[in-house]
Model the fold of this input.
Amino acid sequence: MPVDVLRLPASELLGHTAGVREVYAGTYGAPPWAEDPGRADDYVRRLADDVKRPGFTAALALDGDLVLGYATAWTTPDSFPTDRCYPYISAALGERHTSAWLCGAREVDELAVAACARGTGLGAALLAAVTEERSDGLCWLLTSVRARAACAFYERQGWTQATHPAPGGAGYAAFLGPR
Done:
C-alpha cells in the first residue's frame, strides 16, 4: 500500500495519538536521545496542548491506518519563550537574531519517522508538509547536536545550522529553513 503524507487539522491528528506515541517512543527511545518510555506518554499529553498553539500545523505519514511518521509545527510567539530549550538558543543567537530569525517564524517542534520507513523520503516529505506553506520562508527548528544523523538530514534538506555546540559537543543546534 502506498504511503500518504497528509496535513491534518488538530482534531484529526489527535485521533492518531496511539500511532504518534509509538513512532515517538521508537525514535526518541533510541540513541542518541535514549529517552525513558514514559516520555512518549508525556509527549502525547503535551500534544493535546500544543495543537492549541497559534499557527499549529501537523502532517502524518500513513500506510493505511499505520502511522509511519509525523511532524508538528507552530508559530513561535513574538515574545520568545523561556521554557524548555529556548534559553539555550536565545543565548547562542543573541536577542537581535532571535527576534529577527525565530520570533513569528514557523517552528518545527517534532519530526519523527518509524525505523522501518527511514531512508524512504518520508522525513523530507513531512518536513516540507509543515513548512512549505510559509510564504516568507521563515522556519526553524532545534535538535540535539548529538543527533548527528538528524543534523545531517536537515543539512541535506537545505537547512542551515545557526548555532553550534559548546566545546565537547554538547547542547542544541538551531537550524534555519532553506528559504
Remarks:
- The first strand starts at residue 4 and ends at 8.
- The chain has one domain: 4-176.
- The helical segments are 10-14, 17-28, 38-50, 86-102, 122-131, 148-156.
